[in-house]
Amino acid sequence: MSGVRAEAVRPGAVPVLEIGGTHVTAALVRIGSGPAEVAAPHREPLDGGGTADAVTAALLRAGRSLQPGWPARWGVALPGPFDYARGIARYHGVGKFDALDGLDLGALLRSGLPGCTGVAFVNDAEAFVRGEWTEGAGRGHARVVGITLGTGVGSAFLRGGVAVTSGPTVPPEGRADLLTCDGGPLEDSVSRRALIAGYQRASGRRLDVREIAGAARTGDAAAGRVLADAFGLLGRTLAPWLRRFEAGALVVGGSMTGSWDLIGPPFTQGLTADVPPPVLARRPQEAGLIGAAWYAATGPGQEER
C-alpha cells in the first residue's frame, strides 16, 4: 500500500478476512468516504492446530457469509510465516497452521470466495498498524510503530503508510519478534508461553496469562514481578529502534492490552524519554480489518490466474 489517504480512493466496500489462531473474521469494510465502516462482520471459530481441510473450510465458511454483490479483490490479514506475495503458507514447526505448510492459499481462496477476482495478503500486525495509521491512534504521524501483544509480539514500522522491512532503522524484516534480549530471542521473554513458564518457575503453579494478571491484581507478588520484568524488558528492547526509526507514535494492540493496568506502566518505564510513550489502539477490534481493506484497495495482491 502506498501512502494513500481516503480522499484518493474511490468509495466502496472491500471484502476482508482476518485470520487468527482461534478464529477468523469476515467483514465488508467501506473506505474512501469519511471514517471506515465495518459491516456484516461474521466470526467463525478456528482451530490453528487442525487439519488443512478443517482450517480452510472455516475460512471459506466465514468468507461465504458475505455477499459483496460485485466482483472484488479481497484483503486477507494473517500471521506469518507466510509468502504474502505468492499466497503460499510457510508454517512449519511454529505451533499453529502447520497443516497448511506449502498450501497455495491464494488459489484456494480465489476459487472459493464469492466474487473474488484476487487476494491481497498482508501480515496481521501490519494490517492492524495500517488501520490505526488511517483511522486511529497513529493518524497524523509520518512514522508509526505498532505492536500487537498476544501469543507473541507482532509489529510493523510504517513510514508514510508504507511498511519498512529493511534498512538500518528497523529490526530484521521490520519484525520486533526477531530481536534478541538477555542473550536470546525476544519471545523467549515476552510471549504467552514465556509468561506462563516464568510464573510456573516463580510459583510452582501453571496459569494462563489472564489468570496471572488476575493473581497480580489480588496481590500475588510473583505474578506482578513476572509481568513487570517481561514488559519492562520489552520497553528497553524496543526503545533503540523507536529512536532510530524516529517514530512519531507507538500504538499497542492485541489481547494482552486487556491487562494494560499491569503491563502498561513497566512497558512505559522501560522506554526512554526521547521516544514516544505507548498509546492504546483507538479501534482495536476493527483496525486489522480496516488495514486489510486499505491494502486490498491500494496495494499489490494475488490476481486471478
Rounded average pLDDT: 92
The CATH architecture of the largest domain is: 2-Layer Sandwich
Instruction: Please name the CATH topology of the largest domain.
Output: Nucleotidyltransferase, domain 5
Dominant shape: globular
Number of strands: 15
Number of DSSP helices? 8
Structural class: alpha/beta
Major beta sheet, strand line-up: 3-2-1-4-7-15
Determine the fraction of residues in helical runs and give it as a percent range: 25-40%
Main beta sheet: strand number and arrangement?
6 strands, mixed
Radius of gyration: 19 Å
Beta percentage is 15-25%
Description:
It is built from 8 helices and 15 strands. With about 300 residues, it is of the alpha/beta class. The chain has 2 domains: about 5-125 and about 285-305, Nucleotidyltransferase, domain 5 (2-Layer Sandwich), CATH 3.30.420.40; about 140-280, ATPase, nucleotide binding domain (Nucleotidyltransferase, domain 5), CATH 3.30.420.40. The two termini are about 20 Å apart.
